[in-house]
Write a structure and sequence with these properties.
Layout lengths: L2 E2 L4 E2 L22 E8 L14 E2 L4 E4 L23 E5 L3 E2 L10 E11 L12 H7 L3 E3 L1
Parallel strand pairs: 8-9
Antiparallel strand pairs: 1-2, 3-8, 4-7, 5-6, 6-8
Length: 144
């Protein structure tokens, strides 16, 4: 057991397993931000995340309205409020896999940004008709 210089492999489990990871940087000042804990509805998907719609990407704008049961959803969600009826909005901070280990979608907790400076081009609004209303619901976020 140990490192084999001929093959460049190690016998330890997981040592040679490649890790796939994408980075999404949308914060312009990571030291100046405020986040809050949120609950995301189990039926939420990220339609723009081709082949992995069950994984919500950082920078995804989420909204809460009277009909969402206190949970946050993307603008294209079936129970999303009308664009002029948004009670609260946040920007998702980290990747969230909406499926559990058994493959079944569940409500998930996450962190949502409500204050800070962000790169506007990196924010995922999903539905263009909601852009301005989401920005208005985030008065303490500076979109640059």
């Amino acid at each position: 057991m140990g490192y084999d210089p001929l093959t460049g492999r190690d016998d330890l489990p997981g040592i040679d397993t490649p890790i796939e990871q994408e980075a999404r940087e949308f914060l312009l000042d990571p030291d100046h931000k405020a986040v809050k804990g949120i609950v995301i509805d189990d039926a939420s998907v990220d339609a723009g995340n081709a082949g992995k719609t069950h994984i919500l990407r950082p920078g995804l704008a989420l909204i809460r309205g009277a009909g969402t049961g206190g949970k946050f959803v993307p603008a294209d969600h079936a129970s999303a409020p009308a664009d002029n009826a948004i009670l609260e909005a946040v920007i998702l901070m980290h990747y969230v896999n909406m499926r559990g280990a058994d493959g079944v979608a569940r409500d998930k907790t996450a962190q949502g940004l409500w204050h800070g400076r962000v790169q506007d081009s990196q924010i995922i609004f999903v539905d263009a008709s909601y852009d301005e209303d989401i920005r208005a619901a985030l008065p303490q976020v500076r979109f640059e």
